[in-house]
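re: that chain from earlier
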Amino acid sequence: MSDSVPPVRRGPWDAPATAPAAAPAARPAAAAPEVAGQSLVWALISTALLGAFLWYYSGSWVVAVAAIWGLLVHEYGHVLAMNRYGMGPAKIYIIPFLGGMARGQRLPDSEWEGVKVSLAGPAFGLLAAIPFFVLYLVLGGSAWLLGAAVIAAINLVNLAPAPPLDGSRALGPVLARIHPMVEKGAMIAMGVLVVFWGISNGSYIFAAFLGLALFGHLRRGVWRPEGRPLSALEAGYSVGLFVLAALACVGVALAALIPLADGTLEGALTVGGSYLGFGR
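^ sequence. v structure.
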């Protein structure tokens, strides 16, 4: 049903019709200011602080360099994906004593794009291990293999489905398709487990950071802010890509650890577990 005024026929002696006055042109909405990136000076200071902390904690400058390099390549994977989906220009921020993050100018248009952006970091980040394998083949020395293993571990830990790690954004939308409370409960449970792992492993700063992030997620209340929800097919793809990324991280880690453990898989798992704080 519509409500409209019928047209009126004009006679020959009627005054000529006048064109309606043009409405003033609307002023275009002001664009949101671009998110400023980290200043060069502060980025260098943050990187130096993070590198010094890792060197002190690990006792190896190779491990410190590997962790910084792996972190940058990991975050650049997010940047590439964000720019690909129109969220750029994305920026990388180095956080002293903690790690780094990539930030776009806007949210993704759909949860499917958000899943791909979150998994781009761990998938692309594994490429950072290639130079360390090459250096091991050319120069020898177990330190290079340990550096490659550290890079694999950084990407694997980021796949943990605990906020604000990448795994929470990759699997969260899948769990939300079942029920939002399923996602919320799983994120809380995994967050508590990861915080407990950090405390038991002596990574108190990392555990405190994750604890604060988990508290922030609980206070926020909105668990799915990104555009269009996942379809059933996209949810299946999300789980498959997550599993492939996790298997790739494990594969790179084993490729680096097996030579360090006399060529045995069991020894590699023992060495990797000891570095992650398991089996102590």
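The beta strands are 91-95, 99-103.
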